Amino acid sequence: MTEPETHRDRGAHRAERRGPSGTVLVWIALAVVAVLLLLAAVFLIPRGDDDAAGNKPSDAGSTSAAAAPSGAGTAKGDEPVVVGRGETRAKTWSALLQDSGVALGRPQDDAGTRGLVSRALGEAAGGTADRTATDEALKFRARTEGDAAPVRSAAERLDQLAGNPTASASAEPTPLSPALAAGAASGGPQPNTTVVSRADWDDYHSKHSDTDLVASTPADTDAPTADDATLQKALDQWAHLAEAFHALVAIDASGSMAAKVSEDGSTRMDLTKAAAQTAVKLFPDHDELGLWKFGRELDGTKDYRELAPVRELSETVDGTTQRDALAKDVDGLTYYPKGYTGLYDTTLAAYRQVLKDDAPDHLKTVIVLTDGINQDAGSIGLDELLTKLKDEQDPDNPVRIITVGISQDADETVLQKIAAATGGSSHMARAPEDIQDVFVKALTSE
């Protein structure tokens, strides 16, 4: 505060020496400042003709974004729009997030995706969208699409749509589905819409004025955006879930997996194999997966047998890739008609294997799928297993266990305790048709 006061004293001294002319100069200076402030106000206040200019014929149905924190991607041009061959029928941004036909980028560096995430979270907080469904969609996107290879830029996604004659934003939203995501990841049906920023769309449209793509936003929505802290938390979670995966999957091969569970004669094992095949197709090449099957004394005295060690899915294995080798191993899975379930010994062995694996900067995980309870009288007990899981954990590079119970026969309480001991999660596929979705949901959980 002392320096400004010093300047003011000097100004007063000069005024005394110069007489009235100094006063005149002061008034002139004040007048100039006033004019400058007036001009600034004129140029900074939004003008109606600017808004109209932004509403091009191809942007029918678009609405202006609500004001939001700086981290929400609301700078001019960062507002998200939906692009396809027709106006979107989605009524909320959360619905778009949950639509498997909508392609996104990485929200950390894609303004359009970041704006969609912010608005979906804002809707969930305000009660116009289901919070659980929004959170689950964010996790699924991060794990299966947000870091899938290749993640396309906004311009690339628009080019992809332009070259896809079936792309139509007017199509009814299709709920996120593991099967659809796996199909798209392996060259199947591609997205029919995408979300990009207003600036990205304007740039594309200026270079392709004859395009039949149009931009729009959800109908009748002036969606609130998430506050900075909420948005940042979501972005951090996205980045975490998009980290490379290092997972060992152990599948129950006991006799109870032969139980027929559908009218066409499919068994629990058949449905579990189908779910595992989906998972194998679903994840990026940099993810690392391996496979065990378990029962009781499948390999000498061991209750489990390794079918494939954990390797990067793109790694070459005997002239093929780890992904293709795993798909073949999964297809060959069989149950043992009189086999029992060695759940506890297998879980501990898989946990120790992944603990010692050299996989820094990966999400180290064991996924156990079972339809029963531990039936190995000679194995360790549950209390001992839980103690060992906690005591042997590596705080610097932890391993989480995710359990998936198949059918009502699985002991839900036991599976929850096993997962909780490592900070993992437990899931139940109570009905046969739930196995695929539950399995992939388990893989995409934190």
TrEMBL record:
<feature type="region of interest" description="Disordered">
    <location>
        <begin position="52"/>
        <end position="82"/>
    </location>
</feature>
<keyword id="KW-0812">Transmembrane</keyword>
<feature type="transmembrane region" description="Helical">
    <location>
        <begin position="24"/>
        <end position="45"/>
    </location>
</feature>
<dbReference type="InterPro" id="IPR036465">
    <property type="entry name" value="vWFA_dom_sf"/>
</dbReference>
<dbReference type="InterPro" id="IPR002035">
    <property type="entry name" value="VWF_A"/>
</dbReference>
<dbReference type="Pfam" id="PF00092">
    <property type="entry name" value="VWA"/>
</dbReference>
<feature type="compositionally biased region" description="Low complexity">
    <location>
        <begin position="177"/>
        <end position="189"/>
    </location>
</feature>
<feature type="compositionally biased region" description="Low complexity">
    <location>
        <begin position="60"/>
        <end position="75"/>
    </location>
</feature>
<feature type="domain" description="VWFA">
    <location>
        <begin position="246"/>
        <end position="446"/>
    </location>
</feature>
<keyword id="KW-0472">Membrane</keyword>
<keyword id="KW-1133">Transmembrane helix</keyword>
<feature type="region of interest" description="Disordered">
    <location>
        <begin position="163"/>
        <end position="196"/>
    </location>
</feature>
<protein>
    <recommendedName>
        <fullName>VWFA domain-containing protein</fullName>
    </recommendedName>
</protein>
